[in-house]
Write a structure and sequence with these properties.
Porin, mainly beta
Length: 481
């Protein structure tokens, strides 16, 4: 494996330094000390009461997720200096968010959610975001004193805050709520409406948001939704107006196959997700599904969902004829989160999902999260950490985590090792692929304050077949209030 082990050792050293569990003498010292580092971390939610009894309120949430990474770049990747770059080591903002919702009456609720995502030292900002550096498409002087040199590229500075969610909701019945706006009440799967506050793995696999930043705004679309719970059934349904994007597809002369791509249209889309809750019932006040309850609930759900958008992609036949295709996406999943031993505090969390995606013939999107690689790359992945992520075909994904006994760290936090596997079988490629992730969470205060270390393996493709793999190691610090 080409991955440089020195970065692995460095990351592990950092995490071990943060976790007071290395060596009996060190542990005893920490247990004996009355250091403020290990005082109780519990706190009351950030809530502004609008009535004496607290039934009317505004709730605020704030969270940051920062990534320190060592990435084995895809073959042919160039660095910011235009030179070949086999490995990259960087730090960036994966998410910085603010959310507020007001429950002024039991009959209605208003929510707003804003922030930034994916800012690195090379991208994530706005054109002209700084006097020097990478200013988007605007050529500027690299040295403002001498005026020598120009830089053209992606901006890294001064990212623009934008709204993720803006919606209003009204209670019709105990079993039925209706809402409108830019919303996250998604269909397809549980993970398509996943909360970013309580992932078990370091992040989502991204293909759970198959429309991401094309016909949606960071996994949100404008629409009208209905949600509720009827006995053990939990449901969310929506009629959406997807964002209109795309220039259409083409015909691949080399392989003699049509290639579908998004096309501008104004058709509405339908989506929904329905789950049966065998054990405890989950809270559905907000759309965000929990990734791991850490043994605080007994949950076992099986669900299924869809998204359908008519004439949303186009491909061309050999004679140039344009053919329109519906986007038809289906997901089936199961989620288990259960305490194993109340005395030791152990718990098991497991999730599995199967996706059947149809975007039209040979549709494919490569995605690289916070990608700092440049150039075209010499594989079909492209540069940096990009990989074939979303396309026509089938995907299976599963993750499992085990919350270790609380006695391991005494009162200094909890540890949860986890692993995930993914199988992708895309129509565009002649071979399918497996990939994996593994790591652990160190919970200082549950999901409110945690450190996650994860290693991820991704496949490389050449000539439409898997030709190898590359790795990425990420250390995340995560705090939310």
């Amino acid at each position: 494996m080409k991955f440089k082990l020195k970065w692995l050792y460095s990351f592990i050293g950092i995490v071990l330094y943060c976790i007071p569990s290395f060596g009996q003498d060190t542990l005893s010292t920490y247990m004996a000390a009355k250091d403020e580092m290990f005082v109780a971390h519990e706190y009351k939610p950030l809530t502004l009461k609008l009535s004496e009894d607290g039934s009317k309120y505004i709730r605020f949430l704030v969270w940051n997720q920062l990534w320190l990474r060592s990435t084995e770049n895809n073959p042919g990747t160039l660095g910011v200096d235009g030179q070949p770059k086999d490995n990259s080591f960087d730090i960036g903002i994966r998410r910085a968010r603010f959310l507020a919702y007001a429950q002024v009456s039991p009959r209605f609720l208003v929510l707003t959610h804003w922030g930034i995502n994916n800012q690195t030292f090379t991208n994530g900002g706005v054109p002209g975001g700084g006097l020097t550096g990478n200013p988007g498409g605007l050529p500027v002087s690299v040295n403002p004193e001498t005026g020598v040199g120009t830089a053209n590229g992606m901006s890294a500075k001064k990212p623009q805050l934008f709204f993720h969610d803006i919606w209003t909701e009204f209670k019709i019945l105990n079993e039925l709520y209706l809402g409108t706006g830019l919303h996250y009440w998604n269909g397809i799967s549980r993970m398509t409406s996943h909360s970013t506050l309580n992932f078990m793995a370091i992040d989502a696999p991204i293909f759970n948001w198959p429309l991401i930043e094309l016909t949606d705004q960071f996994a949100r679309q404008f629409g009208i939704y209905a949600k509720g719970q009827v006995k053990k059934w939990d449901y969310r349904l929506a009629l959406n107006k997807p964002f209109s994007v795309g220039n259409g597809g083409r015909f691949d002369e080399g392989r003699q196959v049509p290639i579908a791509a998004n096309i501008v249209n104004d058709n509405w889309a339908t989506q929904g997700y329905i789950a049966y809750q065998f054990l405890e019932t989950e809270n559905n006040k907000l759309p965000f599904f929990v990734g791991s309850y850490l043994g605080s609930k007994k949950v076992f759900n099986i669900g299924g969902g869809w998204h359908h958008h008519a004439d949303a992609t186009m491909s061309r036949a050999a004679d140039g004829t344009a053919n329109l295709h519906d986007i038809k996406l289906i997901g089936l999943d199961a989620f288990l989160d259960i305490p194993l031993n109340p005395l030791t505090g152990t718990a098991l969390t497991s999730y599995a999902v199967f996706y059947s995606y149809d975007f039209g013939p040979n549709y494919m999107r490569n995605v690289g999260i916070m990608n700092v690689g440049f150039g075209a790359g010499s594989t079909q992945n492209g540069p940096g950490n990009a990989q074939p992520t979303i396309g026509t075909g089938n995907i299976f994904y599963s993750q499992t985590g085990f919350l270790l006994p609380k006695s391991i760290l005494e009162d200094h936090g909890r540890v949860q090792p986890f692993g995930a596997i993914t199988h992708k079988n895309f129509e565009l490629f002649e071979s399918s692929s497996w990939q994996y992730d593994f790591g652990f969470n160190y919970y200082m205060n549950g999901h409110q304050a945690k450190i996650t270390l994860q290693y991820s393996n991704r496949p490389l493709f050449e000539n439409y077949r898997k030709s190898g793999s590359a790795g990425e190691l990420i250390l995340q610090t995560h705090i939310f209030l």
